Amino acid sequence: MPKQAEHGGHRAAPVHTDPAQVSVLTALSAVADPVRLQLIRELAGSADWTRSCGSFDVPVGKAALSHHFAVLRGAGLVEQRDEGARRVNRLRREEFDARFPGLLDLLLRADGDTG
User: Where is the HTH arsR-type domain (predicted)?
Assistant: First the structure.
């Protein structure tokens, strides 16, 4: 997975993967982690571009959170953009549903137990 480059103190724009290019194993691996599932569920309940990376209630540090978002971008689930000092997110529900019909609905209506 490509890493973000730092250029003169500015972070590079995040790299996004088109959901049409994602394998089912990549998608399932991305959603199998409880932290990433929590991120998806919180994004699903929020309007597009309203949630910054630091606004999620997950039990991981900043570096781990960045990794989780990179995995979700790589699976075509999340799109991110920078707004000033904040990086905001949206769930790519329509695009992901076109690639894997019903998968997000199943994940979002499942009980909180992933194990």
Answer: 16-111
CATH number at residue 94: 1.10.10.10
pTM of the predicted structure, to 2 decimals? 0.83
> What residues contact 28, with CB distance under 8 A and at least 6 apart?
none
Token digits for 44?
């699903």
Quick one: which of 43, 36, 45, 38 has its CA closest to 90? 43
**In which domain, by residue range, is 98 found?**
32-107
pLDDT of residue 2: 41
How many Cβ atoms from other residues are within 10 Å of residue 95's Cβ?
A: 15
